[in-house]
Amino acid sequence: MFNKEVKKVSLVGVGPGDENLLTLKALECIQNADVLVYDNLINPTVLNKARLDAKLIYAGKISGNHYLTQDKINETIAEYAASGEYVVRLKGGDPYIFGRGGEEAEYLIERGIDFETVHGVSSFYAGLGYAGIPITFRGEATSFHVFTGHRKKGEPLDLDFKNIAKSDGSLVFLMGISNLPLIVNGLLSNGMNPHIGAAVVENGTRYNQRVFRGELCSIEEIAKRENIVSPALIVVGDVCKKDLKFFNKSKLPLSGKNILLTATRTLAEKMAIRFKETGANICEMSLIVTKEIEIEEEKLVSELNDSTHILFTSSNGVDIFFEQIKRYGIDIRSLYNKKICVIGSGSGEALNKYGVNADFIPSKFDSKSFLDEILPKLDKDSKVLMLRAKIGSDVLPKGLKSAGIAFSDIPVYDTIIDHRKKFELNKDIENFDYVVVASASGAKALVEMIEDKKELSGKVVSIGPVTTKALVELGIENIITAKQYDVEGIIDAIKKL
Predict the structure, then answer these.
(1) Which of 116, 151, 310, 467 has a beta carbon 3.0–4.6 Å from 462's, enabling a disulfide?
(2) Which residues are catalytic?
(3) Nearest to 263 by CA among 285, 278, 281
């Protein structure tokens, strides 16, 4: 059982990038943290798993410059821990493999601050594995050797190349792309076979992984030609001639496309599953969050008793409604005589989780189509209870009012912008081929936080015309709009480009 009163600091390795390589213990720490101090190697999808009220503090490097010095990182961890908050220090790979986790542990010990270390999957084998390169192979590489390819700024790379060049097995250099010429020269000048296999793996296991193979004598030229940047692994050995990719996505329709999902956490997670099935490389970065608005029990019971139809416009509304009736002890069977209506397939699927099937869903997933198709089924005795976001389109209330249909428009949640994601959004935006926006509130969040709107031109994919209208009004151009207003429509729109 997790008890943050006992734990003050966790030094957590989150693996090389793929969020699915998180250990169960690492995930528990992230989900319970008051403060997350993270570096440049952390996948934004991992940060998406943090509590909505957790502080996110970036402590990595940008273009070779420290955003926070190591001394400042140590002080930050200690200060928050001393104030009674549970601090999780997120580090790429494993904290104790060239990650300076040992220095942070010593700093905490010296100050009497209790901590734990949560080890993570290291890139030196997982990054290679995702590239289809086994770090060992019977009869060809029966050992491996791992080196840092990086030193403190201004210090030379002083590896013992004379002995390294004589080593059997696979040679792996971490954080060494800026020193690749020195590494290649050090090995060649000490007698290593120039035609032995070599490879570089950029962003190993992440959504934007790239792999390039060659020989020791050519790998420097390849890296320069392909503009390989950090983080990247360098591996030398004949295992580089193996190609054991465990899942070849090249034949899938969205293979190689890097796609950013900006929707709420729940929706982004659902979308990610479907996108990955098409071969896309996905990053989840929820720019908006939903905050429940509680309806007084007496009011909710009264509205339910008076209504003939209940309308949900989103899966968020469905989930919050069922949580509230559960909290109040309202028997779901009391809804037996209500017609349950939804506007989209996502809301219908959310209903199914609670054992309820929608009585009505329009042929097109938008408010106008809903009104066109539902109004002939309503009469003067009908009353529609709309359970939706606090700020929503006025199409539904105006349409019902003009048709003389009684209704109640009850907000069950508010959508707010998660400004914590601004830094990550602007740091990574150039990496994405497409940015998916699933609501008008998501459009507002994206435009409010992006620093250069030009980065969005031609790459924003909208879930439908309402969202597109919001984007246009906010100054975004060349928008791709789905014709079917759900994840399948978004995927189809991208496929046709």
Answers:
(1) 467
(2) 39, 61, 175
(3) 285
